[in-house]
Amino acid sequence: MSSGIAGQPIPLTPAPKVSAWRPYSNPKNIVRLESRPEGRAAFIIDPWTQRWAILGAGSEMVLAMADGTRTREEIVEKVVATAANDHLRSPRTVNALLDELRAAGLLFVSKTQHQSLGLPPVVATEPLGLHLEITNACNLSCAHCYVSSGEKLPDELTDAELRAVVDQLPPFSDKLVAITGGEAAVRRNALDLVEYCSVERGHKVDLYTNAYKFPRKFAERVLEINAIGAGRVNLQVSLEGATAATNDAVRGKGVFDQVLRSLAMFQELGLNRSTQLFICITKNNIHELDAMIEIAERFDLAKLAFSQWEAQGNAADTPWESIAPSLEEWTGAGEKILAYENPRLQLLGNFFGDLNNTKGGRYTLERSLFPKHLFGYNVFPRVSPDGWIFASQLWVDQEWALGNVRDMTLEEAFAGEKFQEHLRLFRRRAEVVEECRSCQWVDLCGGGHPGHTLSEYGQLDHKDAFCDTRKFWFERYVDRHLEGALSRG
Q1: Environment class of residue 354 by beta-carbon count within 10 Å: exposed (0-12), middle (13-18) or buried (19+)?
Q2: Are strands 346-349 and 355-356 parallel, antiparallel or unpaired?
Q3: What is the pLDDT of residues 58-106, one digit of tens each?
Q4: Distances in Å between the alpha carbon of 348 and those of 288, 359, 360?
Q5: How far apart are CA 263 and CA 211, in angstroms?
Q6: 3-class SS at 476?
Q7: What does the alpha-carbon distance between residue 210 and residue 217 come to, in Å, rounded to a whole number?
Q8: pTM for the full model?
Q9: Sign of the C-alpha dihedral, residues 84, 85, 91, 96?
């Protein structure tokens, strides 16, 4: 043994221990190989966890070896022995790739750990709120009304019954209660329920309204409720275009001017910053997108949300495909949303998959996690004016009702066999739709939204109407980050 300073023995470096780790990676990882003049790269996405990384070519081979049965040393040995690329015949290179893959969150201790870090496209969860329809009565008859509002139903829930439904949400848990109809404002004591939800139960409230001749005393009452309820009440106002001609073709003559008067009143009272404008986009109004944004800016509204018609209710005989903008129009509108910069106005486009002009949006190009279509079936359940429970707002046909609040609680409805059968139907969709089985994005989508599919095609075994749009944004996200990574070398 050699001697060191002051004759002290120098300990020999112990031999490195062999790692017992058997790396696991998702066998359904999505890999896009890219060769450009700037270089070669592999864009790798774990659709379960939504983690992704851009690494050198060959990393996909290393990842494929990580099946949870081979040790790190066995993976290195196997890759070095079988790689056709000289680059991968170096143990040092393969070890470096393993380190990069682990740092990127694409390698796991076990399959169990991996499963704990993600969600399937269709989930059942604790409700985040409630879509509470307090009346079917409405002072308008819109061409696209998904529930065919108009006349009051003979057996609508009483005030006490409505409060009992709200009481099923944990108090002061900051859930969101959307109070709608019909036109909620035409129901007597509607704002008493708003105050009960906001002040006494501690929930956020969205009061949906067509804002047609909206009473000033109602607006003033909302202000009073917000003054004592920590500003939890917002208004959601509907329009169908930026001109009277476009809007009134859907909502009725004179409605556009009346809505603008209501927006002016909200601004005068200071209620505008608690107001969101909601517009269904079709081929008939998409050319007015800039003008719609200008309206929201003019009245200094907090949000502007774009959505789509559903082929049900009054629109049951109007297939989405007959009024849908072109793919180029859709994606062009989406690019406009993403590029829009105004801290006073949040733009949302849920028909694109929740595109959002803020960096916190679920489908922004800057979000660190790869976009994924997550459908929480009971995340925002709907209760009809006569008490029928639907797990999602987009189901209106009676055959999808889980029961009635007069006979069961929401918790009992979501614990029932009918709800579980719905989940099984939704989760098997991608297995039986031919286009989905052959699509590389299927594990990020699950076949899309079953509600859109059912309303448009009358069946679940079909890809949804927004498939091509969603695939565009998946590809757009990849291209955006590849261009940035390759340009940086």
Answers
A1: middle
A2: antiparallel
A3: 888 999 999 999 999 999 999 999 887 777 888 999 999 999 999 999 9
A4: 16, 12, 12
A5: 8
A6: helix
A7: 16
A8: 0.90
A9: negative
